[in-house]
Write a structure and sequence with these properties.
Helix content: 10-25%
Number of strands: 6
Radius of gyration: 16 Å
Strand content: 25-35%
Organism: Culex pipiens
InterPro entries: Endo/exonu/phosph_ase_sf, Swc5/CFDP1/2
Protein name: Craniofacial development protein 2
Number of helices: 3
Amino acid sequence: TQKNERRNGGEKAMHGVGFVVIGDQKNRVIKWKVVNDRICVLRIKGKFFNYSLINIYAPTNDKPDDDKDAFYERLDKTYGECPRHDVKIVIGDANAQVGREAFFHPVIGKESLHPRTNDNGLRLVNFAA
């Protein structure tokens, strides 16, 4: 089996995101884009439509609001830059906790592992809305 790694890490290798594309699947790769050390995009050819996979590693909840704001602004821009007809899937580590508050029941139901939503959880839900 052939493996083709596509990854990105910061200069200090503090964080990074990437994809592993195995075997013949590498022939389906249309585009690989490094946005920054926290966001990358892999666009792949599907049978009926294409996929834009956006891999993320969000700043932790204790980071300054400016860092988190910049991350979600860039994520929103990256999402918007994906071709309109692609299936867009955001995966990765959002460092978020979405709780069981009644407000979120229409979004996630009552099944969250977390009793309360943290700041990153609110940011994630706002991005998804």
